[in-house]
Task: structure prediction
Amino acid sequence: MSFNSPYQYGALGKIDSIRLLKLKPASSSDIILQCELFDSELSTAPEYEALSYVWGNDECPQGLQLPSGYLRITDSLASTLRALRSSDKPRQLWVDAVCINQRDHVEKAHQVSQMAKIYGKAARVLAWLGENSASTLNVAPVLDLAQKAKDIGLLSPKGENRETILK
Result:
């Protein structure tokens, strides 16, 4: 196992393949983020949660350890994963910044075109707006997430279009 070298993505096997992230548990938020990535066909994927979060800036100073290397991730994603990480059991997630090879433009285009199906198949969709703070909530990230949901055609649980949230 090498934690000193960057993780190398393999090609996804089939047209409906996705990657899922298995976030390993930790007893403290100070413990390094560790995970595994594995491929699955969307039609037969195990239960997972899809994560939508505020990306923040493009800098990637944080590390995510995998068995065969590390991935650089943003501060925003690192803090999100720390907040969502369980203390006693792994958590299976779909996180676009990690589960899509961001350097492979063909894969990225295909996976983005599948996002409505990916979010729709998830057991739960988690929307992370950032750390709690004493300041007033900035609604811009909420509206951005709502617009993204509308753009990819997500519907509310009752089947109504989520367009009303944007009005």
In short: Confidence is low (pLDDT under 50) at residues 157-167.
